[in-house]
Specification:
Layout (H helix, E strand, L loop, with lengths): L7 H54 L1 E2 L3 E2 L5 E2 L3 E2 L6 E7 L10 E9 L2 E7 L10 E7 L3 E9 L2 E3 L15 E8 L2 E7 L10
Antiparallel strand pairs: 1-5, 2-3, 4-5, 5-6, 6-7, 7-8, 9-10, 9-11, 11-12
């Protein structure tokens, strides 16, 4: 009598081999999915940083060297303001408007709130209501923001640094920060060399 079936040992060996192939395949698939997720997160992070850099550079390159007033109408000593240790920038820039009847000059302020780098745009260059602005988060979860301003080949931690610089925009603006355990440094040239004439 000729038995053509499989023995129990052959069946067990086949099951073990198939199980090993399934485990290896699922590990490879899981590792591929994790790699794809990490790559996607990095790509999104790069896109967000590029967008943030573009918005900030646009605002600074379209800067207007004009007098700034506080919310009570009093003149502030400076056309570009960043107080020492404030992690804050305030200036007037040109923003495209849908109507020619509205001035394109708007006050813009960059601040840190709850570890987020935020852009506030007011509805005029010298607003009277400090609560009337549009707000957008430029960078999430930012650490160690440091602002520096170049004047006559020397970096300063605040602006203005003197009565003369209160009528000027810095030659270069450097923004350093830490994000996702990486250090970044942006240097922006406002490209405005004239001083405000009173």
């Amino acid at each position: 009598m000729n038995n053509k079936g499989f023995t129990i040992i052959e069946v067990l060996v086949t099951l073990i081999i198939l199980s090993m192939i399934a485990i290896i395949t699922s590990n490879i698939l899981q590792s591929s999915l994790e790699s794809e997720k990490i790559s996607s997160q990095r790509l999104n992070s790069i896109k967000e940083l590029n967008l943030a850099s573009s918005i900030l550079r646009r605002d600074i390159r379209q800067i207007a060297n004009v007098s700034i007033k506080d919310f009570y109408g009093n003149k502030i000593n400076g056309t570009f303001i960043s107080e020492l240790g404030s992690e804050n920038l305030m200036f007037t820039t040109k923003v495209k408007s849908f109507s020619n009847e509205v001035s394109p000059l708007k006050r813009v302020q960059y601040v840190i709130e709850n570890k987020n780098f935020i852009r506030k745009q007011y509805y005029s260059s010298n607003p009277y209501n400090q609560d009337e602005f549009t707000k957008s988060i430029i960078i999430n979860d930012i650490d160690n923001l440091k602002l520096s301003f170049l004047n006559e080949n020397k970096w300063h931690q605040s602006w203005p640094v003197s009565p003369i610089t209160s009528k000027k925009i810095p030659t270069l603006i450097k923004i350093e920060f830490r994000l996702d355990n990486k250090d970044y440094s942006w240097v922006i040239n406002p490209n405005i060399e004239y001083a405000l004439q009173n």
